[in-house]
Amino acid sequence: MTHEMETKVINIIQSIDNAMLDYIADNDIENLNKISMSQWNALLIYINNTCFGNGILKNKNSNIKMAYNVYDYELLEYICDYYIYLCYKHDKEVSLSGFGKLTGIAWVTLNTIGKGEILSSKDSDIRKKLLAENEQSLSNKLFDGKGNPVGVIAILNHWHNWQTAAAAKGEQKPALKADQLPDLSLMDGQKQGKPGLLDNMHKEE
Question: Are residues 46 and 94 in the same domain?
Answer without folding.
Answer: yes
